[in-house]
Amino acid sequence: MGQTPRNHQILGCDLPNGYKILVITFIYLSYCSILQVGASIHEYHTESFIRRSNSFFFHGGSEGLYASKPRSENDKLVSEDKPINGKSFIRFESVTFRRTKHSAEQKNAMQQRTGLVEAIILEVRDRDKIGGSYLNSDALCCTPELAKDSSCKVGEVIIHQNLDNPNGPKRLQAFFEGKNEELTMPIQTIEINSTGMYYLYFMFCDPELIGTVISGRTVWRNPDGYLPGKMAPLMTFSGLMSFAYLVLGLVWFLRFVQYWKDIIQLHYHITAVIALGMCEMALWYFEYANFNSTGSRPMGITIWAVTLTAVKKTISRLLLLMVSLGYGVVRPTLGSITSKLILLALTYFVASEALELVEHLGNINDFSGKARLFLVLPVALLDACFILWIFSSLSKTLEKLQVRRSMAKLELYRKFTNALAVSVLLSVVWIGYELYFNATDPLSELWRRAWIIAAFWTLLAYIILVVICVLWAPSHNPTGYAYSEETGDDFDDEEGIPLTGSGVKVAGDLSNMVERKERKTLTAADHLVFGLSEDLEEDKRE
Prior knowledge:
By secondary structure, the chain is α+β, with helices and mostly antiparallel strands.
């Protein structure tokens, strides 16, 4: 749906170009807001069939569906006006097939059935029941030879029915009539009475129908709403996380008000991240709730939620980096590093926004693995840059504090470093589990657990934020971790963003500044070229 930003060019561009990219992104967002995009509504726009074995098929969709809820007589009376309540189903709406004119002209106008197209609904566990595998054949369509030895009909898809399992694969048939070029399936609703991952295929066996295309849509629904099965738990999770951010925000606000005279600039950044997290989770909850009730994504809420997610992820990483650089502890300003931080943040925001948009807009199963990889790679590389920069900065900050024997600050940063190291270790372990999960479940048979993958990262980000809130909580004595000139704290750049509203100015005569610059040449150079050098090192490692 969108093009992935080329991060090497963006990192090498100047700030105005970064703003141009940001403007282009929001123009793209405005364009996306006009589109009508469904999710549980699977739409087909003149799609072609693909040949496989001796059949031709089109994948109409796949979703995790829960079984319809059993209803008592009282429930049936209550829900007469809403017959879909508690039901799980797949409904075919205005599904149309159009064959070529050449194919239609070869048929007899008086003949009623001149071409068969079948819709096959199967649960993933029943995939072996499609085709002639049980007949030791690779054919998907019944041939005259197979018809002699089995109960299949020539020209139809082979389905091995199990009389003991009425919830096996279901077949719907539709026929072209005479020389008609177009065939429209009647509106039908197939109720789902067994929980599982369901696949829908449209298939035909007649080679004369080559060139046939499909249009229309199918609607998929779970017992509690239109939200897909693998996404349903995320609505509850988003609500709980919104409440968790609300509790954290309330505790932080009370502390903020209690010690408002001792607030430093870093506290405002922490407040912004908490507010963004609370708004983000609340928007996602309302997005899922609206989607669940209507069957289509509310575009306005979805775009706002996606954008807030990208903004929060960007600012959260900036907060970690600023704390690791010693902002407010060993340096009152970010100096010339500020421009590098802004460029990295803009790049990350654009890449993250593009990925989130494509993941949350469009049909559920229209996101191919190659397209996703194309968008995931820039975000992964930029995350690696953040991690390398964070730990490199932490190492330098700890070294400075050890030299100056600032024991209170040193202990604070050791706790922060340990917490961050544990989070990185957990992230590596979880990435390994995620890769294992995806590799061992190619057909999404474990769809009921898939929501945990995304939920883990949201929960981990919240825990890290709580750790920062605890370590840098407002207090009567902020000088225990705040920057102070009297302690001899040092920083690398003279120009930058002031720490507090009143500003922190570094005074000294010219000779002292020159001497200090000579003493710190190597360190300053490290900071100035860090973003580039770490990128190069990362590329070499990979």
